[in-house]
Amino acid sequence: MSRVHVTLVTAFVGFAALTACSSGSDGPDSGAGTQKADKPVAAPAPKPITQELTQAHITQALLGDGETLPGWSLHGDKSVTEGQYCNGSKDADSAPAGWVRGGDSSYEYNGSTNNMAYVEICLFDSADHAHSQYAAWKGTETSKQQAPKKPVGDENTLVINPGLSDDSVYGYVRSGKVNIRVRIEGGTAGDPSGVQAMLAATLKRLQQLQDGKAASVTAPEEQAAARQ
Hints:
- The structure is a single chain.
- With about 230 residues, this protein is of the alpha+beta class.
- It is built from five helices and eight strands.
- Strands 1, 2, 3, 4, 5, 6, 7 and 8 form an eight-stranded antiparallel beta sheet that branches.
- A hairpin with a 7-residue loop joins strand 6 (about 155-160) and strand 7 (about 170-175).
- Helix 2 (about 55-60) runs antiparallel to helix 4 and helix 4 packs across helix 5 (about 220-225).
- The longest helix has about 35 residues, at about 5-40.
- The termini are far apart.
- About 35% of the residues are buried.
């Protein structure tokens, strides 16, 4: 083989190796970067309420002034809920099976009681007992029930104008062994987003407290996030 032939072959082999090396370094890195950027990051699943929260925890989870919806403020003080209050029947004179403790708060709109909102939290000793009372709470008016746009908890339902009410929305959530009920009465039937936001914020505050953190989630934050 002549020197010129050997030189040409050597140059060709070197060029091919350089091209392969260049392709190998650019291709996979670029592809891997694209895959990482395109892959959606899943949000952590909310933890159900499984611990026996204290009365102080329940009180802290209830929304206070500046934490509830704009225009609404606490009407009186946060209260310790009596056992019969957590029953599905308004005429109940005893606590439901498995009831442990609860808390409730009420809110007035722009300083007037013409429109009122209510939040109730009820803790049970098991998820089964909580489910039973959740079902009793939401009732049987299936034609008025609808699922929230952004579900929270293990079970959740909105009831538009329950019973004989007008312009009212009731919301119910069960998470583990806790039930939460939010009621807004007066001018809300066309927009249940306020009830949804209060439900979500109250549950997330309970989850924060269960994790040993401060209750910091607010209803306005949840309402803004739901609109995105």
